[in-house]
Amino acid sequence: MGGAETMTHYLLAGGGTAGHVNPLLAVADRIRDREPDAVISVLGTSEGLESRLVPERGYELVVVTRLPFPRRPNAAALRFPREFGALVTSIRDIIRERGIDIVVGFGGYVSAPAYLAARREQIPLVVHEANAKPGMANRLGSLLSKHVGVAFRSTRLPHARFVGMPLRREIERLDRRGTRREAFDYFGLDTRKPTLLVTGGSQGAKHLNETVFEAAPLILGAGWQILHIAGERSELRDSGFPDYHLLAYCDRMDLAFAATDLAVTRAGSATVSELTALGVPAVYVPLAFGNGEQKLNASDAVRSGAALMVDNALFTAEWVETDLVPVLENRAFLAEMSARGLAIGVLDGADRTVELVMDAVRSPVN
């Protein structure tokens, strides 16, 4: 393969959102662990999250034009075939000029042209799909490669192999029990009380935040404390309750998970994968946007008994009183949820994905 006999040059394609960039970086780090001499380049755009995160992690970012798939018939739709063809050609040039040996894609705008470029250059291609409902790029990629990894067992793609989600190293290695005291000290929590973690993701979630804020007396009255990561855009202010810990942002989610006895959260693919793998019971309040992937992301955990799910519109203070408080008061039920999560969760998704990549390196290109 590639330049020196023992050196492989990987091109990892994906970007835009954390859902694409974080698993990509987890896989890049694991490849670098296994093959210190490997050359790893990342294909992305200047607008996406990758433009900051990839260089910060020490990888070269190869920038190409951001070309969204047109959603309506307009002038951009008429230009799209020509512009897409030019983008594929430019990525083929990158593959040849840099001696790329394999393309590994994680979805997003840059992945579809990268998949076609790999196919036309006849080099191995690997696809990883992080959501239960695949995006357009990865549906295309799964038709071009037999090496397709999925984060959820229920994901339907040709050639799909369940590998789980490549997780951040601090989550993979988290000892929840051993780190719990440190976590309580870090957040100023009461070691005598169980903790409800509430988070809507990096941007927060207005309805979820406001419902928990309104229902806080019910939760605290059940003997729990609340660790509420509301998001930097949240307008919530400190309630004054001593056991209600309101944060705008948290850069130590590993410690937040170590302190947590139950999480109330959105159902992004990484969040679901991390909570399930760590055995943290969860109540998912999926955000109804895009192609409805959040609801599907949580479905495996719900079916297994590791989590509960409630529609966003039904998540109200009344629901907290009638449905959530009884769960908070049933510690045996929560323990069972935790055990079921550990039974289906995957902490070694990065290793499993890299094994898939190595299989592709060793296999002849179809």
Protein topology:
Elements: E1 9-13, H1 18-34, E2 39-44, H2 50-56, E3 60-63, H3 75-98, E4 102-105, H4 111-121, E5 125-129, H5 136-144, E6 148-150, E7 160-162, H6 169-172, H7 176-187, E8 195-199, H8 206-221, E9 225-229, E10 244-247, H9 253-259, E11 262-265, H10 269-278, E12 282-284, H11 293-304, E13 307-309, H12 317-328, H13 331-344, H14 349-362
Parallel strand pairs: 1-2, 1-4, 2-3, 4-5, 5-6, 6-7, 8-9, 8-11, 9-10, 11-12, 12-13
Folded structure, characterized:
The chain is an alpha/beta fold. The protein has two domains: 9-167 and 348-362, Rossmann fold, CATH 3.40.50.2000; 170-344, Glycogen Phosphorylase B (Rossmann fold, 3-Layer(aba) Sandwich). Helices cover 46% and strands 15% of the residues. The chain has 14 helices and 13 strands. Helix 1 (18-34) crosses helix 14 (349-362), helix 8 crosses helix 12 (317-328) and helix 10 crosses helix 13.
